[in-house]
Structures are given as structure tokens and as C-alpha cells.
Amino acid sequence: MKSSLDDYFCEMKNSTKDGRKSQDLRVGDLVEIVQKKHQQSGELTEGFIKRFLTKSTFHPHGIKVMLQTGEVGRVKSVIPEDD
Prior knowledge:
Elements: H1 4-15, E1 30-34, E2 45-52, E3 64-67, E4 72-78
Antiparallel strand pairs: 1-2, 1-4, 2-3, 3-4
């Protein structure tokens, strides 16, 4: 029998938006991206999505977006809004 803690972590894993599917992203979402120049270091940049640059619905390295600041990169995580 699974404990409620196991159920919680399973649910969290399934609900996590990691930026690989465009259906999980919307213009205006707060996200963390990795820019091409920072791929080696893994440095993340936080910002709001201005527009989508990847045309497909899925990309294994993250959907490419432009932030409102003009920075371009692949989404590594979606920062959840506080309700």
C-alpha cells in the first residue's frame, strides 16, 4: 500500500512543467531559460515569455522562447504563480 507521501510526490512529478511541451506554456508565464551562451555553465535567466520561437509542440531540450527583455533561450522550468 502506498503512503500518502508517496502519492503526493507522484502527483508532483506528474504535474511539474519543465518547458519541453508548448501546451504547458503561455505568453506572460514566468520561466527560467538557458541561453545558448550559457549552455555549458547551465546559468539560468528568469523572465516572462513574450513570444514562442519553437514551432513544434515538443522539444527535448525545451521550447525556445523570447522573454520580454529580448533574451532568447530554451525553457528549463516554469515558475508557479502564488495563488
